[in-house]
Amino acid sequence: MRRNTAGPRHQNADVRALLQRTSGARVRIGGEVVGEIEAGLVVLLGVGPDDDEAVADALARRMTELRIFDDAAGRTNLSLVDVGGAVLLVSQFTLYADTRRGRRPGFTGAAAPELAERLYLRVAAALRALDIEVATGRFGEVMAVELVNDGPFTIWLDTAER
Which of the following is catalytic: 64, 93, 136, 159? Predict the structure, then answer.
């Protein structure tokens, strides 16, 4: 199968999210804790240049419906809603790193900061509208994310999978 080499626009036209199931997480800027949750998901979110509000809403809904939490029998049959979990949402444009050439990653496939911030905030709002507790980092800031990856259990989502 031939790989599409038409450029970043065609390869990166989707929100990307890395979900990590956690028993607790927080994000710090400097020494200040700006967001903290107990059990739930840490979501690192990257936005592509062709994304819009409908894409952000669909991704939020998908995150809440995924059955990735253990039931009483230890099987992953429960969703974030079922377990009453929270989300720590952190913007992460580096999910669009292109490492095909050289040794320094390129990030031209990520959305412009204005669009990325708008859709990052939209995902947070969509999660809240679904009655999910949401804590966030601060868009565009250098952050330290601390988490206990429960499992470990990590899922890669992108809106191309909708």
Answer: 93
Active-site annotation holds for 107: no
Residues 53-61 have a mean pLDDT of 95
- How does strand 32-37 pair with strand 16-29? antiparallel
d(CA 48, CA 9): 8
Q: Is 93 a catalytic residue?
A: yes
Whether this prediction's pTM lies above 0.90 is answered by no
Which are the contacts of 93, defined by CB distance < 8 A and separation ≥ 6? Answer: 46, 47, 107, 110, 111, 116
Angle formed by the axes of helices 53-65 and 113-129, to 10°? 40
Q: Strand pairing of 69-70 and 86-91?
A: unpaired
pLDDT at 59: 95
Contact 44, 95 (CB under 8 A): yes
Written as six digits, the tokens of 134 are 């949401």
Contact 87, 37 (CB under 8 A): yes
Please choose, from the candidates 58, 51, 65, the residue with its C-alpha nearest in 3D space to the C-alpha of residue 93: 51
Catalytic choice (94, 99, 139, 153): 94
